[in-house]
Amino acid sequence: MSLAVVVFSGGQDSTTCLAWARSRFDEVHALTFDYGQRHRAELAAARRIAKRAGVRHVVVNLHGFGQVSASALTRRNVKVRADGGLGGLPSTFTPGRNLVFLTVAASYAVSHGAADLVTGVCQTDYSGYPDCRRSTIDAVEQAIKLGNGLDAFRIHTPLMDLTKAETVRLAVELGALPLLAESHTCYQGARPACGTCPACVLRRRGFFEAGVPDPIAYRLADAASN
Amino acid sequence: MSLAVVVFSGGQDSTTCLAWARSRFDEVHALTFDYGQRHRAELAAARRIAKRAGVRHVVVNLHGFGQVSASALTRRNVKVRADGGLGGLPSTFTPGRNLVFLTVAASYAVSHGAADLVTGVCQTDYSGYPDCRRSTIDAVEQAIKLGNGLDAFRIHTPLMDLTKAETVRLAVELGALPLLAESHTCYQGARPACGTCPACVLRRRGFFEAGVPDPIAYRLADAASN
User: Fold this and answer.
1) Residue ranges for chain B with pLDDT beneath 70
2) Comparing C-alpha atoms, which of B75, B156, B72, B149 is closest to residue B121?
3) Chain A to chain B, count of Cβ pairs less than 8 Å apart?
4) B contacts of A65 (beta carbons < 8 Å)
5) Structural contact between residues A107 and B100, judged by C-beta atoms closer than 8 angstroms
6) In chain A, which stretches have pLDDT less than 70?
7) Quick one: pLDDT at residue B128?
8) What span, in angstroms and rounded, lies between the C-alpha atoms of A45 and A183?
9) Is residue A45 helix, strand or coil?
10) ω before A198 within 30° of 0 (cis)?
11) pLDDT recorded at residue B221
12) CB nearest A96 (choices: B67, B68, B107)
């Protein structure tokens, strides 16, 4: 009986990872972090998707994390923009966010006897988010093994080297489009999605390049035609 | 202007680290994690000590972490004992607790422009707590650097190779005994301290071997005579 824990935001990538994990493990638990993020619509999406997927869903209150870190995703007075954040990183970069999510998820996994963690991070995002690189994930995996005295613990990153279009095709192969219809991506937290923020633009381009219609609705007429 | 962030529980070791950091950095912030731990007396001690030391004190709500992890420190129905926890580890071992504390503290540090983190972990505790080893700390440090795109970030572990007696002597050198008079160690959360739990016994032995009277009160007459 193998159990995998998925770091699950309710967005496109983690929803694809949830489907991926379901296809490979006997049991899957989805962990969603509530850290006071501005896009609350993600939490609602996560609940809908987990219910439809029939997996155990745990929402972990990490409001204290939102309180210590500074980024446009947790502070309403910081504007979302492609640059201008800390150290020239995007203002949507929350310092070390993935490190915190992965170490908390690992504690959950170890407590439940699971040695497999799945996260949707992807090197395509690397320019903006250094904690999405496989080298960072390897270091976290090593820290988790050493810190828990475990010989075997694996952080799976099935989307690491995929383009957004390839991720869309993987979702189609996994039969995950009905789940993606409930997913949330927009950084503005809008539903229908704004279609113009960096996250929406990336998602739209991926579906467009994969030649697959995006099952979610967009606010803009031109975006909705994708 | 150098700023260091101390992972600060309000116990003997982190109080000594607070004094150590104050002697080496221009400014010190103390971060205390409230994860629903059974020994709530630690939080009160942390507040008293930070106030007396005159450093900025931030209590970070990590109740969500207590919720995902299983240990005698966060669950009232788990008995504190020296063995019998997960994988033969002590029942007081919270899987990956230090990994979570260090990654959250690193987010705070990076958000505040600090490149120095101080933690009181110590290899003396290694038999029970694999996340107290320097090799684990090195892996976490590497993950923090890679995950934040930083060349320089240091996790200081001034107590790593010290015996409890040497830690007591260091505290004396740093003039930290008045702070230690407010510190809390007892796993039972008792004040006066129980004097008989593993944490109390370790603390009492350290002061005894250092030839320094412990400035806190113990419940047991024979312990109080130390």
Assistant:
1) 37-39, 70-93, 125-128, 220-226
2) B156
3) 153
4) 60, 62, 104, 107
5) yes
6) 37-39, 70-93, 125-128, 220-226
7) 62
8) 5
9) helix
10) no
11) 57
12) B107
Q: Retrieve residue B134's tokens.
A: 């320097």
With CA atoms as reference, report the closest residue to A111 among A35, A8, A31. Answer: A31
**Mutate which of A6, A43, A59, A62 to test chain B, going by most B C-beta atoms within 10 A?**
A62
Q: What is the pLDDT of residue B186?
A: 85
Rounded Cα distance, A183 and B105, in Å: 31
pLDDT at residue B93, rounded to an integer = 53
Q: Is the dihedral of CA A201, A167, A44, B63 positive or negative?
A: negative
Contacts of A116 (CB under 8 A, 6+ apart): A2, A3, A4, A5, A25, A109, A153, A154, A156
Return the sign of the alpha-carbon dihedral for residues A17, A18, A22, A26. positive
List the single residue in B68, B103, B140 with the smallest CB-CB distance to A111.
B68
pLDDT digits (tens, 9 = 90+) for A151-165: 999 999 999 999 999
Structure tokens at B118: 């101080």
CB-based contact B71:B32 (threshold 8 Å): no
Domains of chain B (ranges, CATH numbers) = 3-181 (3.40.50.620)
Q: How far apart are CA B39 and CA B132, in angstroms?
A: 20
ipTM surpassing 0.90, yes or no? no
Calculate the alpha carbon distances from B184 to A46, B29, B199 in Å: 41, 19, 10
Task: Give the pLDDT confidence score for residue B80 in this predicted structure.
Answer: 40
Distance in Å, alpha carbon of B27 to nearest chain A alpha carbon: 17
Q: Which helix (H) or strand (E) holds B135?
A: helix B134-148
Cα–Cα distance between B34 and B64 in angstroms, integer?
10
pLDDT of residue B88: 44
Question: CB–CB of B95 and A111 under 8 A?
Answer: yes
CB atoms under 10 Å from CB of B196, counted, come to 18
| Per-residue model confidence (pLDDT) at position B116 | 98
d(CA A113, CA B150): 33
Candidates A63, A98, A108; nearest CB to B147: A98
How high is the pLDDT of residue A39?
A: 67
- CA atoms lying within 13 Å on the CB side of residue B162: 19
Helix (H), strand (E) at residue A43: helix A41-53
Across the interface, of B100, B136, B146, the residue whose CB is closest to A146 is B136
Structure tokens at B200: 């109390």
Interface contact A142-B142, CB threshold 8 A: yes
Structure tokens, A201:
């633009």
Comparing CA positions, the residue from B6, B8, B13 lying closest to residue B199 is B13
